[in-house]
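From: lab user (bench 3)
To: helpdesk
Subject: output format question, protein + magnesium ion

Hello, I'm new to running complex predictions and I'm not sure whether the block I got back is the full result or only part of it. Here's what I submitted:
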Amino acid sequence: MINYADIVADLSWGDTGKGKITSALVKEGEYDFVCRWAGGNNAGHTVFVDGKKYKTHLIPSGVFHGVTSVIGPGCVVHENSLAAELRYLEENGFDVSKVKVSPRAHIVNRLHIDEDKEKLAAKLGTTSKGIAPCYADKMARKGTLAKDVLPYWMMWDEKLHGNVLCEGAQGFYLDVDQGNYPYVTSSTTLPYGACSLGFPPQKIRNIYGTCKAYDTRSGVDPMFPEELLEDPELLQIANEGQEYGVTTGRRRKVNWLNLDLLIKAANISGATNIIVNKVDILMKTGAYKLFHEGGLKSFQDLGSFEKYVRHSLSATDNHIGEIIFSKHPEII
Ligand code: IMP
Ligand code: MG
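Helpdesk reply: Thanks, we reran it on our side. This is the complete output you should expect:
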Protein backbone atom coordinates (compact mmCIF):
# COMPACT_ATOMS: atom_id res chain seq x y z
CA MET A 1 0.00 0.00 0.00
CA ILE A 2 1.18 3.49 -0.76
CA ASN A 3 1.46 5.60 2.35
CA TYR A 4 1.92 8.97 0.67
CA ALA A 5 3.52 10.63 -2.35
CA ASP A 6 5.56 13.82 -2.09
CA ILE A 7 6.39 15.73 -5.25
CA VAL A 8 9.21 18.09 -6.23
CA ALA A 9 8.17 20.28 -9.16
CA ASP A 10 9.62 23.37 -10.78
CA LEU A 11 7.43 26.51 -10.84
CA SER A 12 9.35 28.24 -13.64
CA TRP A 13 11.24 27.19 -16.79
CA GLY A 14 13.39 24.41 -15.34
CA ASP A 15 16.87 24.66 -13.85
CA THR A 16 15.70 25.71 -10.41
CA GLY A 17 17.42 23.07 -8.27
CA LYS A 18 14.94 20.18 -8.18
CA GLY A 19 17.83 17.71 -8.06
CA LYS A 20 19.27 19.41 -4.99
CA ILE A 21 15.92 19.42 -3.18
CA THR A 22 15.13 15.82 -4.16
CA SER A 23 18.53 14.63 -3.01
CA ALA A 24 18.21 16.47 0.31
CA LEU A 25 14.75 14.99 0.94
CA VAL A 26 15.86 11.46 0.06
CA LYS A 27 18.91 11.75 2.29
CA GLU A 28 16.61 12.07 5.29
CA GLY A 29 15.79 8.44 4.60
CA GLU A 30 12.02 8.28 4.65
CA TYR A 31 11.35 7.29 1.02
CA ASP A 32 10.97 3.82 -0.48
CA PHE A 33 10.94 5.08 -4.08
CA VAL A 34 12.14 8.08 -6.05
CA CYS A 35 10.39 8.36 -9.42
CA ARG A 36 10.53 10.45 -12.57
CA TRP A 37 7.18 10.81 -14.29
CA ALA A 38 7.97 12.79 -17.45
CA GLY A 39 10.61 13.83 -19.94
CA GLY A 40 13.86 12.15 -20.87
CA ASN A 41 17.50 13.10 -21.04
CA ASN A 42 16.54 16.64 -22.07
CA ALA A 43 16.64 17.30 -18.32
CA GLY A 44 19.82 18.05 -16.42
CA HIS A 45 20.13 17.56 -12.68
CA THR A 46 23.06 18.85 -10.68
CA VAL A 47 23.45 17.17 -7.32
CA PHE A 48 26.14 17.49 -4.67
CA VAL A 49 26.88 14.34 -2.66
CA ASP A 50 29.44 14.66 0.12
CA GLY A 51 30.68 17.88 -1.43
CA LYS A 52 31.22 16.40 -4.89
CA LYS A 53 29.24 17.56 -7.91
CA TYR A 54 27.37 15.06 -10.10
CA LYS A 55 25.29 15.61 -13.22
CA THR A 56 22.52 13.32 -14.36
CA HIS A 57 19.84 13.59 -17.05
CA LEU A 58 17.39 10.75 -16.77
CA ILE A 59 17.99 8.69 -13.65
CA PRO A 60 16.13 9.96 -10.56
CA SER A 61 18.24 11.41 -7.75
CA GLY A 62 17.33 8.50 -5.44
CA VAL A 63 20.24 6.64 -7.01
CA PHE A 64 22.66 8.76 -4.97
CA HIS A 65 21.24 7.34 -1.75
CA GLY A 66 20.54 3.70 -2.60
CA VAL A 67 16.76 4.15 -2.98
CA THR A 68 14.83 2.39 -5.76
CA SER A 69 14.77 4.90 -8.61
CA VAL A 70 11.98 4.54 -11.15
CA ILE A 71 11.81 5.94 -14.67
CA GLY A 72 8.04 6.03 -15.11
CA PRO A 73 5.66 5.20 -17.97
CA GLY A 74 5.40 8.88 -18.92
CA CYS A 75 9.16 9.12 -19.57
CA VAL A 76 11.09 8.63 -22.77
CA VAL A 77 14.38 6.70 -22.79
CA HIS A 78 17.35 6.86 -25.11
CA GLU A 79 19.08 3.52 -24.53
CA ASN A 80 22.67 4.57 -25.13
CA SER A 81 22.32 7.67 -22.95
CA LEU A 82 20.80 5.58 -20.17
CA ALA A 83 23.67 3.09 -20.45
CA ALA A 84 26.22 5.91 -20.34
CA GLU A 85 24.57 7.43 -17.27
CA LEU A 86 24.50 4.07 -15.48
CA ARG A 87 28.20 3.62 -16.25
CA TYR A 88 29.03 7.12 -15.00
CA LEU A 89 27.19 6.50 -11.73
CA GLU A 90 28.74 3.07 -11.26
CA GLU A 91 32.24 4.42 -11.90
CA ASN A 92 31.56 6.96 -9.17
CA GLY A 93 30.66 4.23 -6.70
CA PHE A 94 26.86 4.38 -6.74
CA ASP A 95 24.72 1.25 -6.70
CA VAL A 96 22.69 1.26 -9.92
CA SER A 97 21.00 -2.11 -9.35
CA LYS A 98 17.94 -0.28 -8.01
CA VAL A 99 17.39 1.81 -11.14
CA LYS A 100 14.19 0.56 -12.77
CA VAL A 101 12.46 1.49 -16.01
CA SER A 102 8.72 1.19 -16.58
CA PRO A 103 8.00 -1.40 -19.28
CA ARG A 104 5.69 1.23 -20.75
CA ALA A 105 8.23 4.05 -21.03
CA HIS A 106 8.86 4.96 -24.67
CA ILE A 107 12.13 4.54 -26.53
CA VAL A 108 13.83 7.45 -28.31
CA ASN A 109 15.40 6.28 -31.57
CA ARG A 110 17.89 7.69 -34.09
CA LEU A 111 15.14 9.05 -36.34
CA HIS A 112 13.59 10.99 -33.45
CA ILE A 113 16.90 12.67 -32.75
CA ASP A 114 17.56 13.45 -36.42
CA GLU A 115 14.09 14.98 -36.83
CA ASP A 116 14.52 17.06 -33.66
CA LYS A 117 17.92 18.34 -34.85
CA GLU A 118 16.77 19.09 -38.38
CA LYS A 119 13.28 20.46 -37.86
CA LEU A 120 12.87 21.71 -34.31
CA ALA A 121 16.17 22.66 -32.70
CA ALA A 122 16.71 25.97 -34.48
CA LYS A 123 13.07 27.07 -34.44
CA LEU A 124 12.12 26.10 -30.89
CA GLY A 125 15.50 25.83 -29.21
CA THR A 126 14.92 22.22 -28.17
CA THR A 127 17.66 20.19 -26.53
CA SER A 128 17.96 18.02 -29.70
CA LYS A 129 17.37 14.83 -27.71
CA GLY A 130 14.48 13.62 -29.85
CA ILE A 131 11.87 14.39 -27.22
CA ALA A 132 9.02 15.84 -29.34
CA PRO A 133 9.23 13.25 -32.15
CA CYS A 134 9.28 10.42 -29.60
CA TYR A 135 6.18 11.72 -27.78
CA ALA A 136 4.54 12.31 -31.17
CA ASP A 137 5.00 8.60 -32.00
CA LYS A 138 3.71 7.70 -28.55
CA MET A 139 0.51 9.69 -29.04
CA ALA A 140 0.11 8.35 -32.57
CA ARG A 141 0.38 4.87 -30.98
CA LYS A 142 3.28 3.72 -33.08
CA GLY A 143 6.06 4.05 -30.49
CA THR A 144 8.44 1.42 -29.14
CA LEU A 145 8.06 0.41 -25.51
CA ALA A 146 10.94 -0.19 -23.10
CA LYS A 147 9.71 -3.73 -22.41
CA ASP A 148 10.42 -4.66 -26.02
CA VAL A 149 14.07 -3.58 -26.02
CA LEU A 150 15.52 -3.19 -22.53
CA PRO A 151 17.11 -5.88 -20.34
CA TYR A 152 14.68 -7.76 -18.15
CA TRP A 153 16.53 -6.94 -14.92
CA MET A 154 15.90 -3.23 -15.43
CA MET A 155 12.14 -3.58 -15.80
CA TRP A 156 10.02 -2.10 -13.02
CA ASP A 157 7.26 -4.38 -11.75
CA GLU A 158 4.95 -1.32 -11.73
CA LYS A 159 4.31 -1.64 -8.00
CA LEU A 160 4.70 1.19 -5.49
CA HIS A 161 4.42 0.98 -1.72
CA GLY A 162 5.28 3.00 1.35
CA ASN A 163 6.56 6.54 0.88
CA VAL A 164 7.11 7.78 -2.64
CA LEU A 165 9.01 10.84 -3.81
CA CYS A 166 8.35 12.08 -7.34
CA GLU A 167 11.00 14.17 -9.01
CA GLY A 168 9.79 16.57 -11.68
CA ALA A 169 11.64 17.49 -14.85
CA GLN A 170 11.60 20.76 -16.81
CA GLY A 171 9.14 23.24 -15.31
CA PHE A 172 5.66 24.71 -15.03
CA TYR A 173 6.07 27.10 -17.98
CA LEU A 174 7.54 24.35 -20.17
CA ASP A 175 4.40 22.24 -19.67
CA VAL A 176 2.72 21.33 -22.95
CA ASP A 177 -0.63 22.73 -21.73
CA GLN A 178 0.37 25.56 -19.38
CA GLY A 179 3.49 26.89 -21.11
CA ASN A 180 3.99 29.36 -23.94
CA TYR A 181 3.18 26.85 -26.73
CA PRO A 182 4.98 25.92 -28.97
CA TYR A 183 7.95 27.04 -26.83
CA VAL A 184 7.35 24.16 -24.45
CA THR A 185 8.40 20.55 -23.98
CA SER A 186 6.14 17.63 -24.97
CA SER A 187 5.07 16.32 -21.59
CA THR A 188 3.11 17.12 -18.44
CA THR A 189 5.47 18.83 -16.05
CA LEU A 190 2.83 19.80 -13.49
CA PRO A 191 2.70 17.79 -10.23
CA TYR A 192 -0.60 16.08 -11.12
CA GLY A 193 1.36 14.31 -13.91
CA ALA A 194 3.10 12.27 -11.18
CA CYS A 195 -0.14 10.28 -10.78
CA SER A 196 0.71 8.62 -14.12
CA LEU A 197 3.17 6.54 -12.07
CA GLY A 198 0.14 4.74 -10.69
CA PHE A 199 -1.38 6.41 -7.63
CA PRO A 200 -4.47 8.56 -7.06
CA PRO A 201 -4.28 12.33 -6.34
CA GLN A 202 -5.51 11.71 -2.78
CA LYS A 203 -2.13 10.15 -1.95
CA ILE A 204 -0.28 13.41 -2.59
CA ARG A 205 1.03 14.89 0.66
CA ASN A 206 3.60 17.63 0.06
CA ILE A 207 4.30 19.46 -3.18
CA TYR A 208 7.68 21.18 -3.06
CA GLY A 209 7.65 23.94 -5.65
CA THR A 210 11.07 25.21 -6.70
CA CYS A 211 12.08 28.50 -8.30
CA LYS A 212 15.11 30.80 -8.22
CA ALA A 213 15.49 34.35 -6.90
CA TYR A 214 15.59 35.35 -10.58
CA ASP A 215 14.17 33.76 -13.73
CA THR A 216 16.16 31.92 -16.38
CA ARG A 217 15.28 30.41 -19.73
CA SER A 218 17.35 28.04 -21.82
CA GLY A 219 16.11 27.71 -25.37
CA VAL A 220 13.93 29.94 -27.52
CA ASP A 221 11.02 31.85 -26.00
CA PRO A 222 9.65 35.26 -27.06
CA MET A 223 8.99 35.92 -23.37
CA PHE A 224 12.78 36.06 -22.96
CA PRO A 225 14.02 38.32 -25.79
CA GLU A 226 17.65 38.44 -26.90
CA GLU A 227 18.04 41.97 -25.43
CA LEU A 228 18.17 40.40 -21.98
CA LEU A 229 21.68 39.21 -22.86
CA GLU A 230 22.83 42.83 -23.07
CA ASP A 231 21.62 44.05 -19.67
CA PRO A 232 24.75 44.42 -17.48
CA GLU A 233 23.02 43.60 -14.16
CA LEU A 234 21.35 40.51 -15.61
CA LEU A 235 24.62 39.45 -17.24
CA GLN A 236 26.32 39.69 -13.89
CA ILE A 237 23.69 37.39 -12.40
CA ALA A 238 24.17 34.98 -15.32
CA ASN A 239 27.92 34.89 -14.70
CA GLU A 240 27.78 34.60 -10.91
CA GLY A 241 25.03 31.98 -11.18
CA GLN A 242 26.84 30.05 -13.93
CA GLU A 243 23.66 30.03 -15.97
CA TYR A 244 24.65 27.55 -18.65
CA GLY A 245 22.54 24.52 -19.56
CA VAL A 246 23.61 21.21 -17.96
CA THR A 247 22.39 19.34 -21.04
CA THR A 248 23.17 21.74 -23.86
CA GLY A 249 25.89 24.04 -22.51
CA ARG A 250 23.93 27.00 -23.90
CA ARG A 251 23.86 30.35 -22.14
CA ARG A 252 20.55 30.83 -20.34
CA LYS A 253 18.69 34.12 -20.61
CA VAL A 254 18.21 35.77 -17.24
CA ASN A 255 15.47 38.11 -16.10
CA TRP A 256 14.25 39.47 -12.78
CA LEU A 257 11.84 37.19 -10.94
CA ASN A 258 8.32 37.48 -12.33
CA LEU A 259 6.28 37.18 -9.15
CA ASP A 260 2.92 37.24 -10.95
CA LEU A 261 3.90 34.14 -12.92
CA LEU A 262 5.36 32.47 -9.84
CA ILE A 263 2.10 32.99 -7.92
CA LYS A 264 0.08 31.59 -10.82
CA ALA A 265 2.35 28.53 -11.03
CA ALA A 266 2.16 27.98 -7.26
CA ASN A 267 -1.64 28.17 -7.33
CA ILE A 268 -2.16 25.82 -10.26
CA SER A 269 0.54 23.38 -9.10
CA GLY A 270 -0.86 23.23 -5.60
CA ALA A 271 2.52 23.89 -4.01
CA THR A 272 2.49 23.29 -0.25
CA ASN A 273 6.10 24.44 0.19
CA ILE A 274 8.22 26.76 -1.91
CA ILE A 275 11.99 26.80 -2.14
CA VAL A 276 13.53 29.92 -3.67
CA ASN A 277 17.01 28.82 -4.73
CA LYS A 278 20.15 30.80 -5.58
CA VAL A 279 19.42 33.72 -3.31
CA ASP A 280 23.20 33.73 -2.71
CA ILE A 281 23.69 34.84 -6.34
CA LEU A 282 21.62 37.98 -5.78
CA MET A 283 23.62 38.60 -2.61
CA LYS A 284 26.80 38.57 -4.71
CA THR A 285 25.47 41.07 -7.22
CA GLY A 286 23.70 43.21 -4.63
CA ALA A 287 20.71 44.11 -6.82
CA TYR A 288 17.26 43.05 -5.67
CA LYS A 289 14.45 43.45 -8.18
CA LEU A 290 11.30 41.66 -9.30
CA PHE A 291 8.29 42.12 -11.54
CA HIS A 292 4.95 42.27 -9.78
CA GLU A 293 1.52 43.57 -10.76
CA GLY A 294 2.84 44.84 -14.06
CA GLY A 295 5.87 46.81 -12.83
CA LEU A 296 9.52 46.33 -11.93
CA LYS A 297 10.12 46.87 -8.22
CA SER A 298 13.54 47.50 -6.64
CA PHE A 299 14.49 46.72 -3.06
CA GLN A 300 17.17 48.26 -0.82
CA ASP A 301 18.36 44.98 0.60
CA LEU A 302 17.77 41.23 0.69
CA GLY A 303 15.59 41.49 3.80
CA SER A 304 12.97 43.66 2.14
CA PHE A 305 13.10 41.55 -1.05
CA GLU A 306 12.47 38.35 0.91
CA LYS A 307 9.75 39.95 3.00
CA TYR A 308 7.91 41.11 -0.12
CA VAL A 309 8.13 37.68 -1.82
CA ARG A 310 7.07 35.87 1.35
CA HIS A 311 4.11 38.17 1.90
CA SER A 312 2.94 37.91 -1.72
CA LEU A 313 3.23 34.11 -1.79
CA SER A 314 1.40 33.78 1.52
CA ALA A 315 -1.57 35.54 -0.06
CA THR A 316 -2.00 32.85 -2.75
CA ASP A 317 -5.14 30.72 -3.11
CA ASN A 318 -3.73 27.52 -1.66
CA HIS A 319 -2.13 27.45 1.73
CA ILE A 320 1.66 27.44 1.44
CA GLY A 321 3.14 26.00 4.61
CA GLU A 322 6.77 26.87 4.25
CA ILE A 323 8.76 29.28 2.09
CA ILE A 324 12.53 28.79 2.15
CA PHE A 325 15.13 31.17 0.73
CA SER A 326 18.13 28.99 -0.03
CA LYS A 327 21.58 30.57 -0.03
CA HIS A 328 23.81 27.55 -0.62
CA PRO A 329 24.31 25.39 -3.75
CA GLU A 330 24.70 22.16 -1.81
CA ILE A 331 22.18 22.34 1.01
CA ILE A 332 18.67 23.74 1.52
P1 IMP B 1 12.78 19.71 -25.59
O1 IMP B 1 12.23 19.24 -24.30
O2 IMP B 1 14.17 19.23 -25.88
O3 IMP B 1 11.83 19.45 -26.74
O4 IMP B 1 12.90 21.32 -25.53
C1 IMP B 1 11.77 22.16 -25.48
C2 IMP B 1 12.06 23.40 -24.67
O5 IMP B 1 12.20 23.06 -23.30
C3 IMP B 1 13.35 24.11 -25.06
O6 IMP B 1 13.15 25.51 -24.89
C4 IMP B 1 14.36 23.60 -24.03
O7 IMP B 1 15.42 24.50 -23.83
C5 IMP B 1 13.48 23.48 -22.82
N1 IMP B 1 13.95 22.46 -21.87
C6 IMP B 1 13.83 21.12 -22.00
N2 IMP B 1 14.34 20.50 -20.92
C7 IMP B 1 14.79 21.46 -20.10
C8 IMP B 1 15.40 21.44 -18.80
O8 IMP B 1 15.63 20.39 -18.18
N3 IMP B 1 15.72 22.65 -18.27
C9 IMP B 1 15.44 23.81 -18.91
N4 IMP B 1 14.86 23.88 -20.10
C10 IMP B 1 14.53 22.71 -20.70
MG1 MG C 1 18.06 21.24 -15.26
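A quick orientation on your result: The longest strand covers residues 2-10. Let us know if anything else is unclear.
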